[in-house]
TrEMBL record:
Keyword annotations from UniProtKB, A to Z: Membrane, Transmembrane, Transmembrane helix
Organism: Actinokineospora globicatena
Name of the protein in question: Ionic transporter y4hA
Stretches that traverse the bilayer: 7-27, 33-52, 64-88, 100-121, 133-155, 167-187, 213-231, 251-269, 281-307, 319-336
Cellular component GO terms, alphabetical: plasma membrane
InterPro entries cross-referenced by the UniProt entry: Alkaline_pH_Ca-Antiporter (IPR052946), NaCa_Exmemb (IPR004837)
Record membrane topology: Multi-pass membrane protein
GO MF entries: potassium:proton antiporter activity; sodium:proton antiporter activity
Domain of life: Bacteria
Amino acid sequence: MTTAPTLPRWSLAVPPFALLVLLISYGRDLGPVLIALVCVGLGVAVTAAVHHAEVVAHRVGEPFGTLILAIAVTVIEVALIVTLMVSGGEKAASLARDTVFAAIMITTNGIVGLALLVGSLRHRVQEFRAHASGGALAVITAMVTLSLVLPTFTLSTAGPTYSGSQLAFAGVASLVLYGVFVFVQTVRHRDYFLPKTSLTEDDHAEAPTSRTAISSLVLLLACLVAVVGLAKTVSPTLEAAVESAGAPVSFVGVVIALLVLLPETVAAVRASLRNRLQVSLNLALGSALASIGLTIPAIAIASIWLTGPLTLGLGPKELVLLVLTVLVSMLTLVTGRATLLQGTVHLTLFSAFLFLAVTP
């Protein structure tokens, strides 16, 4: 009789350690020792978050596992955005737009490109379900157009902003689209989002008990709180470094988004290395959907008590990058097969986004 797998000790110790580092460093000026401690806490928290996400995913199965990780990260990220908007005044007017756009570029080009690259280097050609990933891309395109493109062209208010009723409509529409997508992904057509490849050794391993999975879920949330909090803690140091390098202050938001999305990135790469590219795409595209589908309704509600303008519309440079990303993603997802070439193209677009963020 075999015993159900238990959680390794390091995975139990990391979340309290990371939260302790957050408690020690939050709101303080970071010297060299604290910066090093924060970096260590951030790194081990990301590693533990991925481990606990995989434990939960093994228990509940796909695509629920990737959905839990994407939603958990996004909920914490949205809470951080709203908090910063409440306390940031006019300087935070474009925070939601910049964060959501950065998340879209990171997930659809950075995470997807990296997963395609490492997977194709090991397996040459990888297969996925085009109808599932293509449907996710269609929802992303509709949501990002309603939320970040149309405000640039509406006439009810001056500048790239929405009126109150327009913002309410965009929030409701985003929430409805995301809700329908989650229903299709988890209930109506769940089989569309399962990997096409055969089961791996990890899948044949005995599933953890419900108690172990619940413990991992709690520890996962603790790790994600630590990741987001430590990313916020280190942001003043990053801002000072960015300013000294002559880069725009807005680039700090990109760096923070990169740090917050590290758990999804690591999980997506590991899945691709196991020749389970569909899981990687579920993570990447699901994170993009959650970022829009939860952030826009949240700021629509928060705008009731927020003062000052809320900038949502993208500028010309960002619009070009967005259109190019959608077109390239369509060509990548239409065949259901991916090689080194597609990964290189997506990573090139991601590099262009980072380069233009530093040198606008």
